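Internal tracking record. Fields below are filled automatically when a chain is submitted to the structure queue. Please do not edit lines marked as system-generated. If the sequence contains nonstandard residues, flag them in the REMARKS field before resubmitting.
Queue: standard
Priority: normal
Entity type: single polypeptide chain
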Amino acid sequence: MATYLVVGSGISGVYLSRMLLSTGNEVLLYDGNEKLIPENIKEKVMKDFEGGASYEAALKVYVGALTQEILDATDICVISPGVPVKAPFLDAVREKNIPVTGEVELSYSFAKGKLAAITGTNGKTTTTALTGEILSAFYPETYTLGNIGLPYASAAAKMTENAATVIEISSFMMETAKEFHPNVSAILNITPDHLDRHGSMECYIAMKERIAMNQTMDDTCVLNYEDPILREFGVKLKLEKKCKVVFFSSKTELENGYFVKDEVFYKAKNGEAERLMHADDMNLLGVHNYENVCAAIAVTSAMGVPMDVIIKVVKSFKAVEHRIEFVREIGGVKYYNDSKGTNPDAAIQAVKAMKGPTVLIGGGYDKHSEYDEWIKAFGGKVKKLVLIGQTKEKIAETCEKLGFKDYEFAESFKEAFDKCVAAAGPGDNVLLSPACASWGMFDNYEQRGRIFKEMVNEL
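SYSTEM-GENERATED OUTPUT FOLLOWS
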């Protein structure tokens, strides 16, 4: 038994606390927000927690300053993904020589069975959701966890050796990874994101690539051949014989791997290509989703799922909420919710997926992104851009620089929506794909997307 200092009282902190309590440990659940009420946090942990009453004495909750008393009682500190490893308060933890670990790393030490881990700047959630559905069609005990919904800690201690788990991994989660070792890893793409936290593109890339750091030749790493960073990483893995490498591509006919040509999906081995299905057989839109599907096929095949099971699930799979999600058609105008388009690259894919003239809502929290490539991708398709949030002036400057004049500002999300409705006519699309995070105006991108859908459905 050990005493864990769990930092962060959000969903990760709650499930970490439950996992640790249920495995016989003591928990000091800490949150630096002094406005929170410890009794409310404790109630949140205990609510719907099976056997929770028997563990209540082993849970203590603290808010505000991290005191010497708390540190003296701590054996191990575990931080939620939202807590940076360089957070100033952690200096006091390290000065006491208390080990610091993270939610995913600690959960991995409790988990059992097969594990697939998926990361990338964009497409993670769709690929993870599809991978989870494929696994569940073949393995009776399947878990789909991580950034997609419930934390790894919510199920890790319950798993048996027969479990098949897929987890959506963020760069934040890999900051504390040491022993984390998936049987199959996948990196979908790497484009600039979260530079406000990681400090440099080099550091961000390094965090993504850590997903494969403990893999061996018994394991598989699935990579996007069209991403030059990942192509180079795959060559490096092959040369060092770190693990098996499987590439996928939306543009190139591969000698080995999975690729799409003329909207037909193929599996290639030693130059021989086997036809799997046509893109018209799926419900997903856009070339980026061809890549997501290829990745999911590669991951689940490496996890031992037969190809006929994989293809059957792919054909029936529908778009994940907030990912180029068709909401409704009203008066000949189609409304799409891509609130998960929280960076320029993701928003580019949404614009490319639109068929016909598009009125676009953009802007939000500034993650230090550049918007040139996003504006260039409009290519005559975007007839009006309505800008909101912290980044609206920065994006407008980019529009002016590139000669795109069809933009205007809105002071609120509702005003932006109303402007889009007024500008759209029959045959047009109204697309929410902001190229920015939601913070400042919304709690998260899910709330932003739900409000958008509510406004559409009230028309």
